[in-house]
Design a protein that fits this description.
With 291 residues, the chain is an alpha+beta fold. The protein has three domains: 47 residues, Uridine Diphospho-n-acetylenolpyruvylglucosamine Reductase, domain 2, CATH 3.30.43; 111 residues, Uridine Diphospho-n-acetylenolpyruvylglucosamine Reductase, domain 3, CATH 3.30.465.10; 106 residues, CO dehydrogenase flavoprotein, C-terminal domain (Enolase-like, domain 1, 2-Layer Sandwich). 35% of the residues lie in helices and 26% in strands. The strands form four sheets. The chain has a five-stranded antiparallel sheet. Helix 11 packs antiparallel against helix 12. The N and C termini lie far apart (61 Å). The structure holds flavin-adenine dinucleotide. Its EC number is 1.2.7.4. It holds the Pfam family CO_deh_flav_C. This is Carbon monoxide dehydrogenase. Keywords: FAD, Flavoprotein, Oxidoreductase. One of its GO terms (molecular function) is FAD binding.
Amino acid sequence: MKPARFDYVRAESIAHAVEALAGAGGDGKVLAGGQSLMPMMNFRLVKPSVLVDINRIPDLDRITLEANTLRLGALVRHRMTAEDALVARHIPVLLAAMKHVAHLTVRNRGTFCGSVCHADPAAEMPMMTLLLDGTIHIASPRGTRTMPARDFLIGSLATALEPDEMVTAVDLAIPQDGTGWAFEEFSRRHGDYALAAVAVLMERADGRMRNVRIAMMGIADTALRFSDVEAALEGREGTPASFDEAATLLQASIEPNSDLSASADYRRHLAGALARRALADAWRRARDTAE
Ligand code: FAD
């Protein structure tokens, strides 16, 4: 298949990009890595009248340390994230997640921010942005704004972004030293989109769990956080019984869909099994801050 006709703008700056989007009258699209957009255009699932290529805008391909966050610019490719020393040092759970993203050719081009904007319910990056209390940096002809990831991701392939806005960066909060982490994913073949995945962060003090964070994907229209399960684990001892209870609570709170890849019951079972395993793994890695 070939895409429908479109105009092409090679943006020289963020201001140039958002002006071009505004000029498209609600029908423009940012081109980042093109790994999701181009197939969708080729299948004519989307038919933008203007394609705004941001690949030549300077300085967007950086991962920087800003106070207690890592900032990933709009042109940070999956491969850069997977090989970055700051990510390895400060957010090892993200490194673990990146190993599951697609194959080398896709990772060379696909961008972290592009994946968050694409908002595929089975993608790792939106889930990791939720887990890490991410903040989305947005530019438009009206100026700049920021938005928490939990408000940005609103559904399957749907975000709160306006048609004349582009994402310039995503900030990920760095977990405290000693935080335990785990990432578990199940897919039929390595590099395929996952059937489900879970990521966990937890602190440990006086032999008890603190500030547990659980994010999951593949089991709803968008990646999810589980504030009820997180709250239920606060102050509990990290025992198999607590992890079982948490997994049961999590399973009760989801409504997975059935599709060609898996039934709803199977996805619910998978969610429980992955959550139980990830909680135990994060607990094992967490360093007790009161010891
Ligand atoms: P593009 O394709 O360029 O854009 C995607 C959408 O986001 C478009 O609507 C575009 O307009 C918008 N957009 C992009 N950047 C911005 C921005 N800065 N501001 C505003 N809007 C923007 N992903 C996974 O998570 N896990 C996988 O296992 C996986 N497997 C894959 C396997 C294959 C074979 C392929 C082709 C893709 C796979 N992907 C997977 C998707 C891949 O990660 C994409 O790179 C990613 O989803 C989109 O990033 P991109 O930079 O390519 O965005």
